[in-house]
Write a structure and sequence with these properties.
With 628 residues, the chain is of the alpha+beta class. Among the domains are: 79 residues, no CATH class; 121 residues, Roll (Ubiquitin-like (UB roll)), CATH 3.10.20.800; 238 residues, no CATH class. 32% of the residues lie in helices and 31% in strands. It has 16 helices and 37 strands. The longest helix is centred in the N-terminal third of the chain and has 31 residues. It is elongated, with a radius of gyration of 43 Å. It starts with 5 loop residues before the first helix and ends with a strand. The N terminus is likely disordered.
Length: 628
C-alpha cells in the first residue's frame, strides 16, 4: 500500500512509542499519517469492505467516511489541546475569584500577586453593629507558589477519568481550587470569642423569685447566639474565595424551655417552700437558710411536658462542700515514742467524722419540699485502716520549728490553740491536707482571742492573730519532708517573729476562707501531723511522720533582691489616749523580693523543683499620739 496506508500508521505509532517522541514531534507526524482526503477515505473504505456483498459495501461507505473524519477531528483536537496547554493551566481553573485557566505560570503568578490580601478587612455585621476581622491582625499570608502548583495539577493527576472530567468541565463551568494560606489560629479564635461575647444572649426561663417577703415570677425571654460553625465557614470561605466583602453574621434565636404559663401549677408549692426558714444543725454549729436562699436551691424542669421542681445540683453541691469543710474531722493519732528517727510507739487517739453527703442530699430534699423548719446533719465515721500498724507511721519524714519571743499573750494563745487543733491529723495516701479544715473556724466564738493581724494595709487587732505562726511552722516541716506544697501565701510584709531563727521567705500566711496552707500526701501510706508547743522556749514545732521512701531535700539559701527601706514613721492623733502618750501600733520592715527554691530527689530522680516567690512591701512604723 501507499505511504499513507494503514500498515504504515501502525508502524509509526510503534516507532513513536519506542523513540519517546515529544508532544510537538507527535503532532508533526500526524498530518503525514492521517491526511483527510477523499482518496484516503476511499482507500480505507475499499480495504475494509473488500469481499463484502455490494449492498453492504454501499452501506459501509455511507457511514464509514463521516466516522473516520470525526475520529480524525477528535484526535487532532486532542493533540492540539495538549500542545496548546502543555505549559499552561487548563481552561476553566479559578483560584478564588481569579481566573487563571489558560495562563502560563508567570501570567498566573502576576494575576494572583496583584491581589492585596495583607491588609483587608472582613466586616461581619449584625443589626447596627459591625465586627471587623483584619487579615493583618490574624497574620493571614497566602502562598501563591503552592497555590499555582495545585492549579497546574488540575487535569494532570494521572487518573484518566478524573483528568478527562476536569478538562471537559473547564469548558462548561469554573473549576475552583482553594488557595494555600496560613493564619494565626489563636488570634482568630479570640476574635470569634469577642464577637460571641458581644452578641450571645442566653434565653431566660421563667422562674420564681422571692424579695421583700413576696413571691413573684420573673418572665421568660428569648435569646440569640452566633452559630459557631457557620461563623467559621463564612470567614474561612472568604479566605478561600479571596472575597473580603462584608458578610452578615449567622444568628439563631434561642427559645426558653420554661415559659410563664408553665409555672402556674407550681405556685402553691413555691409558696410552701418559702413559707419559713430552715435551720441546719450539727453539734454547736447552725446554718440558717432564709426563704430566698431556699428558693435558690430549686430549679424548674420540664420532663415529657410535665413541669416540676428539682434540686439545682451544682448549687447544692457547693453548699454541701462548704458545710463538709466545717464539720469534717480527720482521724487522729499520736507518736508516743521514738528511737532516733524511727517510730517505736503509735496509737489512734480519735476516729474521724465526715458529712454523709448522699444522705444529706436526700434529707435536704425531703425537708425542703415538705417545708420542714429544721434538719440535723447526717455524719459518718472515718476510721481508716482496721489495724493501727496499717497506717504506716514508721519514720520521721521532716520537721520545722519557729520562735515567737515578744508575742503578746493573745497571740501566743491563738498559735498554740491552732497547733493543738491540727495535732494528730492523719492524712490519707493521695489526700490533700488543709490547715483551715483541720483547725476549723477562726473566731472569738471558737476560742480564739484578738491579736495583731494584717488587714487592709495595716497591722490591727483582729480575731485569731498569730495563727500564721502555726501555718509558717507547718510550712517549714512540709518543706523539709519533701512533700508537695499545694497552696502557700506569703505575708504582705516581713514579720520579725519568722526571722528569729530562719532566713526571710520561710513563712506562710492564712486568712479564712480564701487563704489556706495545703500540702499533698504523695506517699503510699498515711502521714501524721504532730505539733509540740514549748512555753518555756517560746517555740513551736511540727513533725511529719510516715513511711520514708528515701527522698532527699535540698533547700539553698534564699535569693533576696530589690530591698527597700521602710517609709518614714507615721504619727496619728488618738483621742482615746491621754495627752502626751505615744503608743507604737505598727513596726518598720524592709521590703524585698525573695526567691526560695527546693529540690526533692529520690535517688537520681528529681521529684520536684519548687520555687516559692515572696514580695514583701516596705512597712512603716505607726505611732498613736494621745490628745485626750
Amino acid at each position: 500500500m501507499s505511504a499513507t496506508g494503514i500498515p504504515v500508521t501502525k508502524k509509526n505509532k510503534k516507532d513513536n512509542k519506542k523513540s519517546n517522541l515529544t508532544v510537538n514531534e507527535v503532532v508533526a507526524e500526524v498530518p503525514m499519517v492521517f491526511e483527510p482526503s477523499d482518496s484516503v477515505a476511499d482507500s480505507v473504505a475499499e480495504h475494509v469492505t473488500s469481499g463484502m456483498p455490494t449492498i453492504i459495501k454501499r452501506i459501509k461507505n455511507i457511514f464509514f467516511r463521516p466516522i473516520f473524519l470525526l475520529a480524525y477531528f477528535v484526535l487532532l483536537l486532542f493533540v492540539s489541546y495538549h500542545v496548546i496547554f502543555a505549559q499552561r493551566i487548563i481552561p476553566g481553573v479559578v483560584v478564588g475569584n481569579v481566573r487563571v485557566g489558560g495562563m502560563t505560570y508567570v501570567e498566573a503568578q502576576k494575576a494572583l500577586q496583584g491581589i492585596n490580601a495583607t491588609n483587608q478587612t472582613i466586616n461581619l455585621t449584625y443589626q447596627d453593629k459591625t465586627y471587623p476581622i483584619n487579615t493583618s491582625d490574624i497574620s493571614l499570608v497566602y502562598d501563591w507558589n503552592a497555590t499555582l502548583a495545585r492549579a497546574f495539577k488540575v487535569g494532570r493527576t494521572g487518573n484518566f477519568l478524573i483528568d478527562a472530567k476536569d478538562k471537559i468541565a473547564g469548558f462548561i463551568k469554573p473549576v475552583s481550587i482553594v488557595a494555600y494560606y496560613d493564619y494565626n489560629d489563636e488570634t482568630l479564635s479570640n476574635k470569634f470569642s469577642a464577637i460571641k461575647a458581644g452578641i450571645n444572649v442566653d434565653a431566660a426561663n421563667a422562674a420564681f423569685a422571692y424579695k421583700d417577703g413576696k413571691l413573684y415570677v420573673t418572665p421568660s425571654n428569648e435569646g440569640h447566639k452566633v452559630v459557631d460553625d457557620s461563623l467559621y465557614n463564612i470567614v474561612i470561605g472568604s479566605f478561600n474565595s479571596l472575597d473580603f466583602s462584608s458578610k452578615e453574621l449567622p444568628i439563631k434565636t434561642v427559645t426558653p424551655k420554661i415559659y410563664d404559663t408553665d409555672l402556674t401549677g407550681l405556685q402553691q408549692q413555691a409558696e410552701k417552700i418559702t413559707a419559713n426558714s430552715m435551720t441546719i444543725s450539727h453539734a454547736q454549729k447552725q446554718w440558717v437558710l432564709k426563704p430566698e436562699q431556699l428558693l435558690n436551691f430549686v430549679t424548674v424542669t420540664k420532663d415529657n411536658g410535665e413541669v416540676l421542681f428539682t434540686i439545682d445540683d451544682p448549687k447544692f453541691q457547693a453548699f454541701s462542700d462548704g458545710i463538709a469543710n466545717d464539720v469534717n474531722e480527720l482521724p487522729r493519732g499520736q507518736v508516743t515514742s521514738t528511737d532516733g528517727n524511727n517510730v517505736t510507739g503509735f496509737e489512734i487517739t480519735q476516729d474521724g467524722k465526715a458529712l454523709d453527703d448522699k444522705q444529706f442530699e436526700a434529707d435536704f430534699k425531703n425537708a425542703l419540699f415538705a417545708a420542714k423548719p429544721t434538719l440535723e446533719l447526717p455524719m459518718k465515721s472515718v476510721s481508716g485502716p482496721a489495724s493501727k500498724e496499717q497506717y504506716g507511721i514508721l519514720q520521721l519524714l521532716g520537721e520545722g520549728s519557729s520562735h515567737f519571743k515578744g508575742s503578746i499573750p493573745g497571740r501566743i494563745h491563738n498559735l498554740s490553740l491552732a497547733a493543738e487543733r491540727t495535732n494528730g491529723v492523719l492524712v490519707a495516701p493521695g489526700a490533700i491536707y488543709s490547715l483551715n479544715n483541720a483547725i476549723g473556724e477562726i473566731s472569738l466564738k471558737t476560742g480564739y482571742n484578738t491579736a495583731y493581724i494584717i488587714s487592709e494595709g495595716r497591722t490591727v487587732l483582729g480575731e485569731g492573730g498569730g495563727v500564721c505562726q502555726t501555718s509558717t511552722t507547718l510550712f517549714r516541716a512540709v518543706l523539709n519532708s519533701g512533700l508537695p506544697v499545694v497552696m502557700r501565701y506569703p505575708h504582705a510584709y516581713r514579720v520579725g517573729y519568722y526571722e528569729q531563727d530562719m532566713p526571710v521567705g520561710f513563712d506562710a500566711a492564712i486568712f479564712q476562707p480564701s487563704w489556706d496552707f495545703q500540702f499533698k500526701n504523695d506517699t503510699a501510706n498515711y502521714v501524721l501531723v504532730q505539733s509540740e508547743y514549748n512555753a518555756d522556749e517560746q517555740s513551736l514545732t511540727f513533725r511529719l511522720y510516715g513511711t520514708s521512701d528515701g527522698r532527699t531535700v535540698d533547700i539553698p539559701k534564699p535569693l533576696i533582691t530589690n530591698e527597700a527601706p521602710p517609709p518614714p514613721a507615721l504619727y496619728q492623733d488618738d483621742p482615746t489616749l491621754a495627752k502626751g502618750t505615744i503608743k507604737q501600733v505598727d513596726f518598720p520592715a524592709w521590703g524585698a523580693n525573695v526567691k526560695l527554691t527546693r529540690t526533692v530527689k529520690k535517688g537520681d530522680q528529681v521529684l520536684y523543683n519548687d520555687t516559692f516567690n515572696s514580695v514583701y512591701q516596705p512597712w512603716r512604723a505607726v505611732y498613736l499620739v494621745g490628745t485626750k
